[in-house]
Amino acid sequence: MRVLLVEDEVRLADNLAAALRDGPGFAVDWAEDGQMGDDCARNRCYDLIVLDLMLPKLDGLSVLRRLRSREDPTPVLILTAKDGSDSIIQLLNAGADDYLAKPFDLGELIARAKALIRRGKGAAHPTLSALGLEVNTLEQTVRRDGVLVDLSPTEYRILEYLMHRPRAIVSKRELLEHLYDYNWEHHSNVIEAHVSNLRKKLDAAAPASDEAATESLPVIETMRGRGYRLAPEFEMDPNLCE
Questions:
Q1: What is the DSSP letter of 210?
Q2: Which residues pair with 170 in a beta bridge?
């Protein structure tokens, strides 16, 4: 998942970015003022925007209003030193999805960020399920038919991203943009290797009775020249996405 952090306090921004990268493993882009934040949101696709209110050049409320005026549905988590009811009502009416009053706990920030991303993807429940695969986005664990699959952080993030888009073809560029930050070009040659390892681990966890089917129908398909997708038979369980 890719997060835009708009925060002018350098030390706080460093701490927040580190927490979002090291904990849930998000890719984080940092904008140090409101104008830069608005430009990033206009030109890139994010899964979440963490937006401070008190910003130079363009305040956070103006950034939020510009975002919503473009009908951009990206979830927005506001960081504010104002915790009065009038201020909160104004933020929510302007299109904020949630807020945290400073000072706040980093653990709470991460929990709220994950919840907003899940809701933004249409999956409020932390478990994503598709034909024998279960991805717990809180624990960051993967099971196939009950068998725990040991994935690297990058392999997990690739699978979670695909599970959020069960019918979509996801391009290599889209994966790179959501797995890494501004410097994703430096990682452009590693996606194929990660997907290959991910396939092998998922196949190895398949029950013996499914081995023949697994060989003919991989969990992740490569669409030549277009990207990757979950096999068409993999449908999300609607009971886990309400």
A1: G
A2: 228
